[in-house]
Each structure stands twice: as C-alpha cells, then as structure tokens.
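Hi there,

I know you've been waiting on this one. I reran it after we fixed the sequence typo, so this is the corrected version. Both the input and the resulting structure follow.
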Amino acid sequence: MAIATAAIRTAVSELLEGDIGDLDAGTFAEGAFDGQPDAAKLAVLRQTSTASHWFDVVIDDHETHESSSLSNRATTRRVTVPIAIEVWTGLATEAQEDDRAELLASITDDLETACQALSEPSALDETSAAVATGIVGGLMRDRDHGGQPSFQIVEERWDKRWVHSRIEGAVIVGAT
C-alpha cells in the first residue's frame, strides 16, 4: 500500500509556512522538535525575525478507515493517518502574570487560525511542487473525523521562555 507520507508532511509544512494556502508567511516555521536539546531549541526560538512559532510535523501509524471495504478483492482502501504538529513559541522575556493571559491568547489565536487553514477543503491536495498527497478532500480533520483539528497548550516553560503547544488531527488517504 502506497501512502504519500513525504508529500503529506511537506504539504502540511508548506501550508503552515504560508507557501500554499492562506496562512501568512512568517507566523510558523519548521525547525523545533521534541527531543531537541534545550540549548538548540532556544537558539531556534530566539530567531523571532523568521517566525513567531516553530513546529515539527509528526505522522503517526495509520490504520484502515471504517469506510474501507473488507473484501480481499478491493484494489484500494482508505486509511486514517493521524498527524500531530508540535509547536513551540519563543517568549521575549519571562512573562509576568499580567502578560501571561495576553501571550496565551495570542498563541491560541494563531493555533486556531492554523487549524482553520488545515481544515480548508483542497488546502492539502498537493505540495507547492504539485506532488499529490492523496488526501481525501485535501483537508485535515479532527481525529474522530467530526470537525477541524484541535489544539492544546502542552507545557508553559516561562523559565526557559517558551510555550509548547500541539495541533492534532488526521487525514484520510486513498491507498492502493
């Protein structure tokens, strides 16, 4: 079964970076990831002239989608591909209590905008190089397929001057 995992990852990254779709360039940039040494992550997060939020796209193990035929004669099937987007936001200073609510509101506004862009029909049909992703409808859904992807604040590290968030969703792919 061929799933265009690289194309899916690329399309999601390009959409968040503003290369495809309607998100503004400079809000998100690929470059921070889970397991990265703190010093390296902090160096990336301090590049605020490049982006406000840094991310990594993580594609989880796929599973057969419920709409797939169980017949052995079927030549195609649909699979659900879970996707997590780990997002780190660098902070200019250790926030005071007064600033915290405003900073978190700004972060959640950007995450909400990203979720809306990811769930726009046809937004993830192909990469900027016209490589097809095979995503049904060209959009990311929540993991239960009922709406747009969801997000959460995972960790607030005011001492390290970052906030870690996560966008979670899934795409349905027609596989051969």
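Quick highlight: The chain has one domain: 5-175.

Best,
R. S.
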